């Protein structure tokens, strides 16, 4: 063990608070991932098991197979609902681009600013917007 200096108890409480904050984030991320994967497996696992059974014995009724297919489609429909409920970053990103989710007073991003942001580079002297147009 290393002896502690007098200033380390403050650093220890800060590190404990820092660890606690990150453990809460990790717990929330784990919960979100668990819900997403759980819903995926509940929706698609019966479909894939039925596919294997159909290939082996051809004993699955077509109507049942259709119901399982639509169960998987319902999972895909639920993803846009689940992500905003549990992920703040996703909610913010969607709020910037969807008019129904934008907060009042927030400017709408222009197409030029979006393309500049997505290109991972700023404006270049040789290829500025004036030169292109």
Automatic annotation (TrEMBL):
Does Ubl conjugation count among this protein's keywords? Answer: no
**Where this protein primarily resides, as one coarse class?**
membrane
Membrane-topology descriptor: Multi-pass membrane protein
User: GO terms for CC?
Assistant: plasma membrane
Cell compartments where the protein resides: Cell membrane
Which ranges does the record mark as transmembrane? Answer: 26-47, 67-86
Biological process terms in GO annotation: adenylate cyclase-activating adrenergic receptor signaling pathway; positive regulation of MAPK cascade
Q: Show the segment(s) annotated as Disordered.
A: 113-133
Q: Where is the G-protein coupled receptors family 1 profile domain?
A: 1-83
**GO MF annotations for this entry?**
G protein-coupled receptor activity
**What single Pfam family name could you report for this chain, choosing any that match?**
7tm_1
Note the superkingdom of the native organism.
Eukaryota
**UniProt keyword terms in alphabetical order:** Cell membrane, G-protein coupled receptor, Membrane, Receptor, Transducer, Transmembrane, Transmembrane helix
PANTHER family attached to this UniProt entry: ADRENERGIC RECEPTOR-RELATED G-PROTEIN COUPLED RECEPTOR, DOPAMINE RECEPTOR 2
Could you identify this protein by its name? Answer: 5HT6R protein
Which species expresses this protein natively?
Answer: Cnemophilus loriae (Loria's bird-of-paradise)
């Amino acid at each position: 063990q290393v002896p502690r200096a007098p200033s380390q108890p403050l650093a220890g409480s800060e590190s404990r608070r820092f660890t606690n904050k990150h453990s809460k984030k990790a717990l929330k991320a784990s919960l979100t991932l668990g819900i997403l994967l759980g819903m995926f497996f509940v929706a698609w696992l019966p479909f894939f098991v039925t596919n294997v059974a159909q290939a082996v014995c051809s004993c699955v009724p077509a109507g049942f197979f259709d119901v399982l297919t639509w169960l998987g489609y319902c999972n895909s429909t639920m993803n846009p609902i689940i992500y905003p409920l549990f992920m703040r970053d996703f909610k913010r990103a969607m709020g910037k681009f969807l008019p129904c989710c934008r907060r009042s007073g927030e400017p709408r991003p222009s197409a030029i600013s979006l393309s500049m942001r997505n290109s991972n580079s700023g404006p270049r002297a040789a290829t500025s917007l004036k030169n292109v147009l």
